[in-house]
Amino acid sequence: MAETPQASGPDVRVERDGGIAIVTIDRPAALNALSPDVLRALHAAFESLAADGSAVRGVLLTGAGGRAFVAGADIRAMADLTPEQGEESARLGHRVAGAIEGLAAPVIACVDGFALGGGLELALACDFIYATDASTFGQPEVRLGLTPGFGGTVRLPRAVGLARAKELIYTARRIDAAEAAAMGLVSRTFADRDALFEGARATLAEIEANAAPAVGIAKRVLVAAAGRRTDRAAEIEIAGFGDAFRTEDMREGVAAFIEKREPGFTGA
Q1: What average pLDDT does this structure show over 129-146?
Q2: Are the beta carbons of 21 and 14 closer than 8 angstroms?
Q3: pTM of the model
Q4: What are the catalytic residues?
Q5: Cα-based torsion angle of the residue sequence 135, 140, 144, 145 in order, rounded to the nearest 10 degrees
Q6: Residues ≥6 apart with Cβ < 8 Å to 159
Q7: 36-51 vs 83-102: helix axis angle to the nearest 10?
């Protein structure tokens, strides 16, 4: 039975099913738009999950209602912002993305419907994106006289390459799930929402069979090394490799390999 911890609120629900946390943005009437309150609730939710440490083995991030993952930032809330307030709004979006990337456990964005603007940026902060065939992706900010502010210019090029990212941002073009998968933005597509969550849970089960500290270190290294010069990225990887030797699970994994048995990982 899933449990709802104190991090839940009216706009963001957090449910627990064993080691899996399901974080749901719950503003279906607004297509789950990212208002400042939603962003603050998301940040609190991921900070709370981080505080649970090894009890959280994986997270599914999704939107309620079946029409949208997140259709974008709350534009009405931005209409009268000053430049300084606009920058603070962007910082809040980046803090949320940082909390997702900083969580040791893997986070899968489960997209069913629109993932536009801030919604796509939120999904890009996750470790990978799974989507239903009915999903749509895009960075439409320039049509409003805006630019991506929650990480689109940083993470989208890493996902699809600089030229494709420029094309998507400059044209504000929307793409379907098949095209998103073909360009590497989406890792896997599914026929419907039920199949999406079944597939995401199956992936987390595969990950959970491995050493949790090693997965966490690998995530930290991948995030930190992205976009760095090769020599600097190599040093980050070397440090992470050394950190793995500080874990009990590394000793157990190597011993199990030598002894030709299944490892008994403890998460330590």
Answers
A1: 97
A2: yes
A3: 0.93
A4: 121, 141
A5: 160
A6: 124, 165, 184, 185
A7: 30
- Tens of pLDDT, residue by residue over 152-175, are 999 999 999 999 999 999 999 999
Contact status, residue 263 vs residue 250, Cβ threshold 8 Å? no
Structure tokens at 260: 């030709």
Torsion of CA 147, 93, 155, 157, to 10 degrees: 0
User: How confident is residue 7, by pLDDT bands cut at 50, 70 and 90?
Assistant: low
Share of the chain above pLDDT 70, in %: 97
| Element spanning 181, H or E | helix 177-182
158 exposure class (CB count in 10 Å sphere: 0-12, 13-18, 19+) = middle
Cβ atoms 19, 56 nearer than 8 A = yes
- Structure confidence by residue, pLDDT tens digits, 179-233: 999 999 999 999 999 999 999 999 999 999 999 999 999 999 999 999 899 999 9
Cα gap 20→1, rounded to integer Å: 12
Query: Degrees (nearest 5) of the Cα angle 100, 106, 108?
Result: 80
Q: Domains in the chain, start-ordered, CATH in brackets? A: 12-208 (3.90.226.10), 212-259 (1.10.12)
CB neighbours of residue 31 within 10 Å = 20
Coil, strand, or helix at residue 110?
strand
Neighbours of 3 (CB within 10 A): 11
pLDDT at 1 exceeding the cut of 60? no
